[in-house]
Amino acid sequence: MDKLEGKAVIAQGGGPTAVINQSLVGVVLEARKCPFITHIYGARFGVRGIIKEDFLDLGQATSHNLNMVAVTPSSALGSTRDKPDQEYCQRIVEVFRKQNVRYFFYIGGNDSAETCRIVSEYAESVKYDLRVIHIPKTIDNDLLVTDHCPGFGSAARFVVSAFACLDLDNFAIPGVFLGVVMGRHAGWLTASSVFARKLNHDGPHLIYVPERPFDTERFLADVDRVYSKEGRCVVALSEGVVDAKGQPVVMSLQQNTERDPFGNVQLSGRGTLGDALSDEIKNKLKIKRVRCDTFGYLQRSFLGVISDQDASEARDVGETAVHFAQRGLPSGSVAIRRTGDYSVDYFMTTLASVGAGTKLLPPEYLLGDNNISEDYKDYARPLIGQIPNFDRLIAPAVEVK
Amino acid sequence: MDKLEGKAVIAQGGGPTAVINQSLVGVVLEARKCPFITHIYGARFGVRGIIKEDFLDLGQATSHNLNMVAVTPSSALGSTRDKPDQEYCQRIVEVFRKQNVRYFFYIGGNDSAETCRIVSEYAESVKYDLRVIHIPKTIDNDLLVTDHCPGFGSAARFVVSAFACLDLDNFAIPGVFLGVVMGRHAGWLTASSVFARKLNHDGPHLIYVPERPFDTERFLADVDRVYSKEGRCVVALSEGVVDAKGQPVVMSLQQNTERDPFGNVQLSGRGTLGDALSDEIKNKLKIKRVRCDTFGYLQRSFLGVISDQDASEARDVGETAVHFAQRGLPSGSVAIRRTGDYSVDYFMTTLASVGAGTKLLPPEYLLGDNNISEDYKDYARPLIGQIPNFDRLIAPAVEVK
Question: Cβ contact (<8 Å) for A69 and B42?
Answer without folding.
Answer: no
